[in-house]
Amino acid sequence: MTPASLQSLMATGTKLWLDSVDPDLVRINHAWGATGATSNPVIVSDLIKTGRFDGDLEKLIDEGLDDEDIAWRLTDQLVNAAEAVFLPVWNKTQGDDGYVSFELDPLLEDPRRNLPHGERVRQYIELGKQWSRGHDNRMIKVPATPAGLDALEELCAAGVTLNVTLIFSMRQYEQARDAVWRGAQRRENLDHFKSVYSIFVSRVDVYTEKHVPDLSADAQGQVGIVNAKQIWQANQRFWRDHPTPLKQEIIFASTGTKKPSDAPWKYVGAFAGSDIETNPPATNEAVAQSSQTFSRQVDQRPPQEVIDEVAQKVDLQKMEQVLMQEGVQKFADPQNDLLRLIAGKRQQILNRA
């Protein structure tokens, strides 16, 4: 049974996705009305730490796979299982919903590997085609880094369904959208063309707390919302002028609150009414247990003085630069942690043998 609070959120027009591929959480959130999910190395690491997948790891080790291959096989297995849960949604909506996102190798962006730009682009294209093949309701997550952006047109032209992630600015969004649209126009038709653009929200507010401390109390903590709503409005305008059979949508991501004083549903409520919210499990659970009632807020702007203050005091170019630098590190480090975790698990299993 869907909790009344989540029912009211989805009734506004929001599609609810889960930021996890934990099979138990997928089952619970699907029962609550969630229609999609996403994965990343942190999620896979946390699942391995539970010990619930030791049997799967043992089988993969017995196959003679190395740590990197095991990481990708287990990720593929978890995403596959979630895809099976949401496939009926994909069928019912004729491909407009019901997706599970699969993140391409974050180590392509690892500064320590320092791969040449062209090689990163080539690998994004190769891996995107590889991991999407044979999966109707799988979205391939590509970061809005220079190499990721340069891979989008070719991936889209090849028929890959894309989730462009790690977007913090209008500039990144526009570059991503334009590249995807160029690729879409190279297809035979647009019948199955679907794309989403993941705008990170709470990280922006963490940034302004640290780097723009002189924002007023009314503006501080609102920059992530203002930024994401402006990008949402731009996305609405663009696709209204370039209509497609399926919706090309914004994902409001990084919607878990970071400040204890903020209500867990601060960002959930701010974007209610349209497109997709990919929420952490704890956020969906907090909303489910609440008595909140949601109404459409996604196109409601804060007071003009707040918008003016944000425009005056927040250097968006610097913000993007800092958050992308942090984001690339947060992108690569969890994959390295996952590989170390698997190596440790391998040793434990071998010691028991």
The largest beta-sheet arranges its strands as: 1-2-3-4-5-6-7-8
User: What is the CATH class?
Assistant: Alpha Beta
Q: What's the structural domain tally? A: 1
* CATH-derived topology: TIM Barrel
Helix content: 55-70%
In percent terms, what proportion of residues is strand? 5-15%
Word description of this protein:
55% of the residues lie in helices and 11% in strands. By secondary structure, it is α/β, with parallel strands linked by helices. It has one domain (4-352): TIM Barrel (Alpha-Beta Barrel). The protein has an eight-stranded parallel β-barrel, surrounded by eight helices. Strand 3, helix 6 (117-132) and strand 4 (138-143) form a beta-alpha-beta unit. Helix 2 runs parallel beside helix 5 and helix 4 (54-62) packs across helix 14. The longest helix is centred in the C-terminal third of the chain and has 37 residues, at 316-352. The chain starts with a helix and ends with a helix.
